[in-house]
Write a structure and sequence with these properties.
7 strands; Aminopeptidase; alpha+beta; seven-stranded mixed sheet; 5 helices; globular
Amino acid sequence: MISVRHATPADIPAMEALIKRSGIELSEGFYTSAQAQAVTQHVFGVDTQLVADQTYFVIEKDGQLAACGGWSKRSTLFGADRTKQGADPLLDPAREPARIRAFFVDPSAARQGLGRLLLQHCTDAAAAGGFHTLELAATMPGVPLYTACGFDIVENMELDLPGDVKVPLMKMRKPLKAA
């Protein structure tokens, strides 16, 4: 039994634990151990604004948290609460892309279609919110999913993290079909 629902503040501790497991274990083969540790510690985590906006979701599989992720109508492209610097203004759906944010799957549920299910759920919600384009900053483990779902790479990015660790990301974009 698989269900998708809005994330709540009560879900945050379990989501943070899932994000940590996912960030470390699913980065294997894409990032070095140092890169996976650094990005998980300094960037990955819950953005509570998405929970408050009701644009962050959890997938439960057989009653257990199996994935989380969302979309945003705000300008922040990626990162948890601890990475924010200043205001996070609303985007204009007529001229700015909605953000796909913070997708994480529990390693025990990887490659079972949960990321794709969550992405479709968020795509539909962003389209219903009036957005015409989606944008995201993909980690290397996420690039295959997003490419398979119609996103194009528009920019190579690199995060400079503590310990002189550099982590590559890909800025990706996808137009939404007109309703």
